[in-house]
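Support reply, case 0932

Customer input (verbatim):
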Amino acid sequence: MAQHVIAPIVRDDYEMQNVRRDSAQASASSSRHSTDHEKMSADAEKVMLEDFDNSPDLTDIPASAAPYSSEEEQAVLRKFDRHLVLFIALLYMLGFLDRSNIGNAKIAGMSDDLHLSSSQYEWTLRSFYITYVLFEWMPILYTVLAPSKYIALCVLAWGAIASFQALATSFESLCFLRTLLGISEAAFSPGVPVFLAFFYRPDELAYRIGLFISAAPLATSFASSLAWLITKVGQGLPIAPWRMLFLVEGFPSVLISVLAFHYIPNSPGETKYLSNRERQVAELRLRKGKAKSGLGRSSGKFEWSEIWEALKDPKCYLTAVGSPMC
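Our regenerated output:
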């Protein structure tokens, strides 16, 4: 009787041991396969990163791969913010000084020396904005010409024209120079968002454009004090203080245009202050953003279809109406 009771118990214990042994073997096998899979993944990632670092042609690397970390991406953005955005803002500040210093020149005696009436002085102001509005199409050239050459040419042009205002001898000559100044600045300022789109994704542009535009109120914060200092020094010189004002505030743009030619990159892949790895990250992050949003820099060719898309976008008209109110 006892033997009949004990036998099933022994058999059940034996079967439970077999189940535990099979389960342990299966777990060990699964762990081994998982370790092998992780090792293969790590090896594959290492090979991909090596290919990424050694590949001179980024078009061979799919945007979806994007083998870079968020820390690397943020490092690239910080360098662009420090070097590119702040430098472009500096250029805009210089241009804003050159366009707005005519008011300080009037106070320093320009109207008396040139015998300008109130109406004529007002036309010297209008002449700038007339050509500025008429030539706002010129930033299209950002997509046609090398940005480094184009921006340097714009800065050189408005710096030289602003300096030549010191040579004005009549209302006609001053008004002519102001019209040229409007053209040269219209070629630069309105197209800066287009240029920054070569380096930033669409969702990153608003903050950088805000930094760029903030250079205008920064310039107005010290423009009057600077003009007072220049005209005060100019009183002891053989040149009229208002002419000295145009020279001192205009000629620095001529000098900095040389720096702009060498310092401003044409694309992320040509940025000198980035390492080779950072240039690759900068290129790939833009390709990845373009793949997600369908936006980004075009092939570099002028496309009439893009003009038509802009004309159909009501935001463009809202911007055109709202800009003069700012």
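We compared this against your earlier run and they match. Two observations from our side: Residues 2-54 form the longest helix (53 residues). Residues 37 and 248 are 68 Å apart (CA to CA). Please reopen the case if you see a mismatch on your end.
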